[in-house]
Amino acid sequence: MKLYIAGPMTGLPDLNFPAFHAQAARLRAQGHEVVNPAELNPDPAMPWAECMLRDLAALTRCDGVVLLPGWDQSPGAQIERLWAQRLGLSVGEVTA
C-alpha cells in the first residue's frame, strides 16, 4: 500500500521532520511504500503554497493517508485529509 504522511510542520522545531521520518521508517518496515512530505520538500525556505501543491499532487497517487498527532491543528494537514477523503482514500491516525 502506498501511504502519504500528513501532520503539522509550520512553527515546530525542525519543521517536525523527525516525527515524519520516524513514521516513514515504521511504515516502510511494515512493507508500505511511503510518501513523506519531509523528503519531498526538504528546503525549509520553500514557500508553503509551493510545498502544498507538490504534496497534494503526490497524495493523489497514494492509496491512503496517515495522520500524525497534531494534524487537526495544521491547516496543511487538514487540507491533505480533506483531499484524501474526497478522493476516497483510506485515512488513519497515528496514536501517540
Would you give an account of this structure?
- With 96 residues, this protein is of the alpha/beta class.
- It contains four helices and four strands; from the N terminus they run βαβααβαβ.
- The model has no long low-confidence stretch (mean pLDDT 95).
Order of strands in the sheet with most strands: 2-1-3-4
The number of helical runs is 4
Query: What is the gyration radius calculated from CA atoms?
Result: 12 Å
> How does the helix and strand content classify structurally?
alpha/beta
The proportion of residues in beta strands is 15-25%
Indicate the mean pLDDT: 95
Q: Which outline best applies?
A: globular
Q: In percent, how helical is the residue content?
A: 40-55%
Pick out the low-confidence regions: none
Order of helices and strands: EHEHHEHE
Distance N terminus to C terminus? 22 Å
Largest sheet: 4 strands, parallel
What's the topology here?
Blueprint: E1 2-6, H1 17-29, E2 33-35, H2 37-40, H3 48-60, E3 64-67, H4 75-87, E4 90-93
Parallel strand pairs: 1-2, 1-3, 3-4
Helix pairs in contact: 3-4
Summarize the structure.
With 96 residues, the chain is an alpha/beta fold. It is built from 4 helices and 4 strands; from the N terminus they run E-H-E-H-H-E-H-E.
